[in-house]
Structure formats: C-alpha cells, structure tokens
Design brief:
348 residues, TIM Barrel, seven-stranded parallel β-sheet, 7 strands
Length: 348
C-alpha cells in the first residue's frame, strides 16, 4: 500500500527549479535573492486522529514545522479547526482527502452524491483505500462535489486555509492519466485563491503564466530509514541538499501511543519525524545552512495578487479550460516521468 500510495511522487523527482516571472525565480518574485534557499516544512495528515493533532500542535508551537494540512473528513477535524481558530493561525491548509487507507479506521465522503451510491466509496460506504481506485471508479462530478464540500466546510466553520494539497496524491490522477482530476485541484485553487501543492515543470507553464504559485521543488523520498538515527541523518542530509528556490518537505508527525498504534503500523516512524524536526540539532542545521523557513502564506498572497483574486471567482468558469490544457500537457508529463523514466530517476 505504501509504495502505490506514494508512487505519484516520482512524477515530481525531476521537477525543474526554474520559475519565471519575466525571468525571475519564485523566490525572487516573493522578494528573496535568486540564490535564496527557501523551505516550507509541512505536517501532513493533521486531524487524522488525536495523536496526529497532538504532534502537529507541538510542532507548530516549538518545532521547525511552518505549515500543516488538515484532513477534513476525519474524526478529529473539529478539534483541529478549534485549535487553529483559538490560536489565530494562518499557516494551516487542507489535505484534501479522497482515500481512506487504514483497515480498521475509515472515513467517508462529506458530500452527498446524486448516484445511489457515491462512486468515491467502496461497498461499505467508505472512501476507496487507494488513489488508483479513485481514478478507476470516481465520477468527476462526485470528485468536484466532494472537494468543494471539504473546502467550504472549514471556511463555514470560520477557518481561513493557507493552501490545499492532496492526501495520497489522489488529486493528481497519475495512475490512469486522469488529468481531469488534476484540473479539479487547480480549479479550486483558482476559486478560493489558495495555492495548490504542485511543483513547476515546463509542461505546467500555462498555469505559471496564469499566476499559480507552483513550488520550485517538492522534496520527498520513499526510502526513509526506519531506524531513528538513520532517519535523522536521512532528513538532515535532505536539508543540507536544499536547492535555491521555494521548496517543500512534508512529514507525517504523530504521537506514538495506543491510539496511533491501533491505526497505523508506522506510529513509531511518525513520532520519530516529530522528534527529528523538533530537535535542536535540526534547528541548528537550518540556521547554519542559511535556509529561510516560510509557510504558504506568502505564496497565497502572491498568487492572489497575480490573479487579482476576488471571492467572486468560480472554478466552474475555468475548469474546462484547465482540463483541456492538461489533457495534452499532463499526458506528456506522465509519459516522460512515469512510463519512460530516465536513468537518473531510476537511480535516485
């Protein structure tokens, strides 16, 4: 499950670090020097369970995490929203969710389908376990409805998200080349004025010109060691290698307790991630490497300025245009990055 869940990330291994607004990097567009190494450290899976909330809160208060993304359909979402509102946080986004991967801990869509049974669910009424199943069985109208419902739910609860991303890559549509699903993510990014986690590649140039704040680099590796010390070295090496531009590393912090142990078989690894990125050693390394930590807040501000965003924007006005562009562009991305990967992407 883990390998297929994160296979989509291989799509971004070769993401270009070149951003351009009249030749500028994204870092320059945000006001940083062209050689600045800018980093967002995001805590994924916020609100998935109470153990995840405890770890994320601790990291937002004392660690190096600068951002988090919330799973709206999950049982502990209300606690997370209350924390964000009580602490007036502006650096928490949404981990848009179309999958429910754990065997004994599941969640359901928040929207009601016009179909007898939602195409987003298995026979028991829960989200499909994998992104592949979402692509195989998910009707685009159901996907549009569910994503819009998740975003609007937290806004109606009084929270202002900083950005949106995608749990298990379910909005990337990469397994079956469903660029119509990726267009849903971009259309909602347009409608709500929220950056969507997507690194820049030349095929996405049309969206860059439209003002989307695409990351320069999305940094994640599948083969993170399980041993705590090896895991720390792994992450610290990744931080040392941060290139110029706006980068993001995402982790999945949680407290290793009875709750998280019953949910996931990686509770010890999740707590290790929390400890590593809260450690003084990591803080000292980031300072030594002159890495600038930011959240998605400046990207959100920049994107809204570029698009001259207003609350009157509607994703339905641009969806077909985005889907048409992606039908051509995204297929070529997948063919190059996934179907015919070069030697570098295989070896690294």
């Amino acid at each position: 499950m883990k390998s297929i869940s994160f296979l989509f990330l291989s799509l971004f291994v070769l993401a270009s670090s070149v951003w351009a607004e009249e030749g500028k990097t994204l870092a320059e567009s945000l006001g940083y020097p062209s050689d600045a190494r800018v980093l967002i450290i995001n805590a994924d899976d916020y609100a998935m369970c109470h153990a995840e909330n405890m770890a994320t809160h601790r990291m937002l208060e004392t660690g190096t995490v600068t951002s988090a993304t919330m799973m709206v359909p999950c049982p502990w979402m209300l606690e997370a929203v209350k924390y964000v509102k009580d602490n007036k946080l502006t650096n928490v986004g949404l981990h848009l969710t179309l999958t429910s991967e754990f065997r004994n801990y599941r969640w359901r869509p928040m929207s009601k389908s016009s179909f007898r049974r939602s195409t987003l669910t298995d026979r028991k009424g829960f989200f499909w376990p994998s992104s592949l199943e979402v692509e195989l069985y998910g009707d685009i109208l159901d996907i549009k409805r569910e994503i819009r419902t998740q975003i609007q739910t937290v806004i109606d609860l009084g929270m202002e998200p900083s950005h949106i991303d995608s749990h298990m890559g379910s909005l990337y549509g990469m397994f079956t080349m469903r660029s119509d699903i990726l267009a849903v993510g971009l259309a909602n990014s347009y409608q709500y004025g929220l950056p969507f986690r997507l690194p820049y590649m030349e095929e996405f140039e049309p969206f860059r010109k439209m003002g989307f704040a695409l990351l320069d680099n999305l940094i994640y590796n599948l083969d993170v060691p399980e041993d705590p010390e090896e895991r720390k070295k792994f992450y610290m090496d990744r931080v040392r290698e941060i290139p110029a531009g706006v980068n993001e590393i995402f982790i999945h912090p949680a407290i290793d307790n009875e709750e998280s142990q019953h949910i996931t078989g990686t509770s010890d690894e999740r707590e290790s991630d929390m400890e590593i990125f809260m450690s003084q050693e990591m803080k000292d390394l980031i300072k030594k490497e002159n890495i600038i930590l930011i959240s998605y807040e400046p990207l959100k501000k920049w994107q809204r300025e570029q698009m001259r965003w207003t609350p009157n924007f509607r994703g339905s006005d641009v969806y077909e245009q985005y889907a048409s562009i992606l039908k051509e562009k995204y297929t070529s991305v997948l063919q190059k990055r996934i179907l015919s990967p070069n030697r570098k992407s295989k070896g690294e």
